[in-house]
Amino acid sequence: DLAHLNPPETLAAILEQTANLGFSMPSEPRTGAMLRALAAAKPGGRFLEVGTGTGLATAWLLDGMDRNARLTSVDIDPRSQAVAREFLGGDPRLQLVTADAAGFLHQQNPRSFDLVFADSMPGKYGYLDEALALLRPGGIYVIDDMLPQANWPEGHAQKVPQLMSALASRPDFCIVSLAWSSGLMLAVRSH
């Protein structure tokens, strides 16, 4: 199911730089395609990516956004985020923030985003409530890497079912878990 993804123009160059950096946690192309579709479903939306990395998922999100949508992407690592700056930084819809995600999440207004893609420990395995609080009704929370990954650190496998259970227990969210791509989970704020 990779044949018809039509990747963003900048993706090949970002992938090359990602490999040159030895960055071992890139977003999977099918995850990117899902993010692009979700961004397209929210015209004029306000999006948050927690964990820019080198900008692979960022490129997919931008590719799905209309001209009135806005994406804020935060990462603590200026070295990896520099790749995103180089290839995507000229897009006026994008704000790249180099900061600790935990502090950033605390500074945001509740219910101010239409989509949150949490691709870092803060916003996913830590500060989950803070990330979820940022979603408007109908807002979508997306996480990936829910299926076993070769780059998981020791002891990480036990955290995944705990996170999935925490999301499933939320009465204010409708969730779906997908054993597809790297393993996705979507949670939509119902009220």
The count of helical stretches stands at 7
Q: Which parts are unreliable, with pLDDT below 50 for 5 consecutive residues or more? A: none
Strands side by side in the biggest sheet: 3-2-1-4-5-7-6
User: What integer is the average pLDDT?
Assistant: 95
Characterize the biggest β-sheet: 7 strands, mixed
The gyration radius over C-alpha positions equals: 15 Å
Question: What oligomeric state do the depicted chains represent?
Answer: single chain
Q: Which class of secondary structure composition applies to the elements?
A: alpha/beta
Order of helices and strands: HHEHEHEHEHEHEE
Helix content: 25-40%
Q: How far do the termini sit from each other?
A: 34 Å
* Shape label: globular
Number of beta strands: 7
The fraction of residues in strands falls at 15-25%
Give the topology, please.
Elements (H helix, E strand, L loop, with lengths): L10 H11 L7 H12 L5 E5 L5 H9 L5 E6 L2 H11 L5 E5 L2 H7 L5 E6 L9 H6 L1 E9 L15 H10 L4 E6 L5 E6 L2
Parallel strand pairs: 1-2, 1-4, 2-3, 4-5
Antiparallel strand pairs: 5-7, 6-7
Write a concise synopsis of the structure shown.
By secondary structure, the protein is α/β, with parallel strands linked by helices. It has helices spanning 11-21, 29-40, 56-64, 78-88, 101-107, 128-133, 159-168; strands at residues 46-50, 70-75, 94-98, 113-118, 135-143, 173-178, 184-189.
